[in-house]
Prior knowledge:
Elements lengths: L10 E5 L5 H10 L3 E5 L3 H8 L10 H10 L2 E4 L10 E4 L5 E2 L2 E2 L2 H12 L6 E4 L7 H14 L8 E4 L18 E3 L4 H12 L5 E3 L3 H32 L3 H8 L23 H13 L4 H11 L1 H15 L8 E5 L14 H11 L3 E5 L5 H7 L4 E2 L4 H6 L2 E4 L8 H7 L3 E3 L12 E3 L1
Parallel strand pairs: 1-2, 1-4, 2-3, 4-7, 7-8, 9-10, 11-12, 11-14, 12-13, 14-15, 15-16
Antiparallel strand pairs: 5-6
Helix pairs in contact: 4-5, 7-9, 7-10, 9-10, 11-12
Amino acid sequence: MVGSGAVTPLRVVVVGQGYVGLPLAVRAAQSGHLVVGFDTDTRRVEALVCGSSPVEDVPGGELGTLLRDGAYRPSMSPDDLAGFDVAVIAVPTPLRDGAPDLSYVLAAGRTVGRYLRENALVVLESTSYPGTTRSVLGPVLEEVSGLRMGAEFGLGFSPERIDPGNRLWTLTTTPKLVSGVDARSRERIAAFYGGLVDRVVEVGRCEEAEFAKLLENTFRAVNIALVNELAEVAHDTGLDLREAADAAATKPFGFMSFEAGPGIGGHCLPVDPMYLSHWAARVRGSGSQLIDLAARINAGRPAHVVERLQRRLSERGRPLDSARVLLLGLAYKPGSGDLRESPALAVARLLKARGAEVHAADPFVDRAAVSAVLDGVRLVAADGDEVADADAVILLTDHPDFDYHQVIDRAEFVLDCRGRLTDSPAGTVEQL
Length: 432
């Protein structure tokens, strides 16, 4: 199903104004809807009211235009949800002690339920295990509103597929999965998103759509774990994994290339597979051995980075506990300031714990956000003096803004965790 671009203006509420909710709210407002962006984070809402976007994918200019036109209104007041036609829930679903935490979804459901009217539509975009929409969110909405899902209000699931910083596959161009607790809900949700995105793909039930979202990211996490483990095997045996992977990628079928690195980050890859394993354990008595193993491999990569660096510094007569280490990149992906679950943060903490003096350069991250999650790490510019003064440089996030020629020319030693400096002189640069 392809969106026609013509929409009937609706009163839309998007609960959660982060990396998922804000782009959706802005896109809905640009498509002609009247949108309230609801969030409980005071600093975030205040910034949005002033036209300052905390998300790279939403330029401040676009936000300012929508604010002036009255098409988009950020709010912390639940009463601003009153009278909505469509409410989209895009709140975090973190792990707590390895188990799914749906407290944000439940809180959002209770808030939305207070203002839920007959024939209104509620869509969950937050990632969770199969059954969450129908068996967790639905009963909360019914209890608070006194209405019945399907019969008196529409309800469905449409998983977010946001890739921060991706200019090719955006909210608009990425196919949008939609589902509903019944056929009518699914049709209405498809019609809503059809006015926002280029292509809508209908999935029969919410449970399969929820499963599909977890499958997408579990596929990536497991395959990244495979190459992360093989990278260690290749290093220990003197083989070049990247050359082997490039050669394998010439096969036109049956192979997809993944990159080894210092670990996985973002909200999706470290978290979503664990939702799937947890759900499997609950419904069938045992989780996924493969998912759990992949999670352990990926989670162990930051420690592997630090251990490799410690060995190389020791060979150079420099103990780690008196070394100055410059980290290039703190965000979990290049071209973004997103710090969520970034393996670079784990590397920084491990280095500090072992006594190193840690400096970090990242032109995309917010200084206050870094200070909130890292203690004792000095944020610096990645200039020539910083590079030259470091006993070692670790390239953790290959941002396009870094001067890699300068790094090669002036660094004493570089541990390249991203395969960016493959043509560098031997001895100065080592690939992870």
